Amino acid sequence: MRMNFKVSFYLRSNYENKEGKSPVMLRVFLGGEMANFGTTKIFVKKSLWSNATSRLRGRTAEALSVNAALDSISTTLHGIYRKYENDESLSLDLIRTVYFGKNREFTSFLPVFDKFLEDIKQRVGKTIGADSLQKYNVLRRHFAEFLMYKYSRKDIGLNEFTPAVVQDFHLYISTVAGCAYNTSVKKVKTLKTITIYAQKRGFLLHDPFVNLHFHMEPVDRGFLTDEEILRIANKDLGIQRLELVRDIFIFSCFTGLAYIDVSNLTPDHIVTMDDKQWIMTKRQKTSVETNVLLLDIPKSIIAKYSHKTYRDGKLFPVLTNQKTNSYLKEIADLCGIKKKLTFHLARHTFATMSLSKGVPIESVSKMLEHTNIRTTQIYARITNKKIEHDMEQLSEKLGKFNSAMGI
After folding, report:
1. Which CATH superfamily is domain 226-389 in?
2. I want to staple 369 with a disulfide (CB 3.0 to 4.6 A). Which of 48, 182, 259, 288 is the partner?
3. Does the structure show a pLDDT above 80 at 391?
4. pLDDT tens-digit map of 189-201
């Protein structure tokens, strides 16, 4: 039962809110009939509205955001129409019912977020770590606080979740919540994970991230110098908990394993081939296989803890990530290291140390379980020691010029 279908927007110009903006209203046409679907909850200045295009004029950030939101509404409604266009029950009332979610399991966003969290909890310890669950829980709290701060509401309708809401959340996270720029981008990208989940399950009928792009700013990843590694490794700490954390940290400096992967290691992951010991495991974050040849230092650390059996048959009695990083701060103070010492710094150190000592980037990428070598290039840096070494080699090769020029 194919009929002409059209979505139209107009401005309710006889009303203005406290900011002097008027609401954009929604009309839907089917065959020869028309129905008012009410406000889109989008407000704009009359002077910026174009009756000819039913959109905002110009290419300002506001215009792009508002127009993207209106496009998203239109796309959602056209999707509903296409779904039912051959159905005898197709009518404006049916489209209204589906659009406003009256026949859907969820009509607002936070209950969908909660369902996502329930699904994630079942995967903890299997395909994701507890830290990931914590990340999503924190995001849920931030988003609820944002809704109350920005809109004075405890939740938001799924059909109201527009690109403008995403942009408002990004602004809130980077200003009111006080997050650094890259942290705010990470949170927004994590939010997108939830909206994709909602779309795939049919809870959300449009993409709130349409035409929105958030990019991380490049950062100089820290690392420890050879001297700093030795200072930590040789320090007489005198406290068992600090010695344990120090040993696990140094182990990561010479294997490149992330915290979660070190904590998951068991004796079964240590494999001997051709009289060489290897760590053979899968990175929990990506499920990518990694093979790391064990050097003497990590082998000695394994031997140190091999005389006991630990919980769940683990290789090391690893503490929680929070406690580990807290104790690393103590270790940094005791060793006179001014850098912010976190467990992930060990991974950066392994990458930098390997690359600066001539290990090919392809090998380092494989050991770090990176799926893209460009990720490894972020860790790469040329240290002064490496430059000095390379220039000394060049000097030897250019010695004939010195002789010829009487130097």
Report:
1. Intergrase catalytic core (1.10.443.10)
2. 288
3. no
4. 999 999 999 988 8
